[in-house]
């Protein structure tokens, strides 16, 4: 008799827990999270942070690399030409470009005795590569002709567009005094404006933008201060 009572108690407990679990178990399946396709989605880049190929990258590549005997349209050393967007994209990958300009050994570019690119220049090219090596043109925004200085306006233009040749080629343009000498003899304005009697500069490259020429002219007219 006691055994039957115990068995009945066990059965009742089991039934209770089965009933409890059935009552409290949700029968509504949660809605699945939506699947978002990323195919064809282009990352959004703040225009202010975008690197402009035509204004910032191409002049640097031509001045430092796209020269006779190196990577211009006739020499094409190692099959690489760095004179336009199409030739850059078709003859060298972003990874290889970064590898050679960061290599401090004999395989690094530009080769000795040409000066290596500065850390700032390498970082600029790296940013351009990271952004997809896009063909940005005319993307520098309004021309600032009010806050012109040698250190912040003029010298960066010389470094990126001229220093690849004129760090070793006479006349050298490595510092303020050397540049000022070319201002005083009239060669700077004559060459960048492609005036008669002067060799157009940058050599074998697109001319400086109208904005850059205007900025340099205004700096010269102000007395070419070392500011």
> What's the overall geometry?
globular
The class by helix and strand makeup works out as mainly alpha
Radius of gyration: 33 Å
Order of helices and strands: HHHHHHHHHH
Instruction: Please give the count of helices.
Output: 10
Question: What does this protein look like?
Answer:
The chain has 227 residues and is an all-alpha fold. Among the domains are: 49-130, no CATH class; 150-221, no CATH class. Helix content is 47%, strand content 0%. The longest helix has 23 residues, at 2-24. The protein is globular, with a radius of gyration of 33 Å.
Show the helix and strand layout:
Blueprint: H1 2-24, H2 53-64, H3 85-91, H4 94-102, H5 119-130, H6 150-161, H7 163-166, H8 176-184, H9 187-192, H10 210-221
Give a brief description:
47% of the residues lie in helices and 0% in strands.
Brief descriptors of the model:
globular; 227 residues; mainly alpha
